[in-house]
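Memo to structure team: turn this sequence into structure tokens by end of day. - J.P.
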Amino acid sequence: MRVFMGVGKVIALLFWLVVIANLFSPFARPFGTLLNIAGALVILAHLFEIMLFNARLRDRPSPWGDRLQLLLFGVFHLLGIPRHRRKEARDA
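Reply from structure team:
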């Protein structure tokens, strides 16, 4: 699982580097626009993940660092965060 998350983070980082490169030097006509749209959709999905898992991130030692990594890597970072167990579940 760790290898999968590591490879996913590398691929996500390469995607963001290509999106940033496209902003400074746009690619050919249809590809540059499609890449900008894909980048915007991925950012929106990652922002939704941050809102959805905010309670889990709040209890972490560095919540803002985790939010930044979640913004960049999405589910690949989320899978590495241990689940917070409720007190009732531990007592049962």
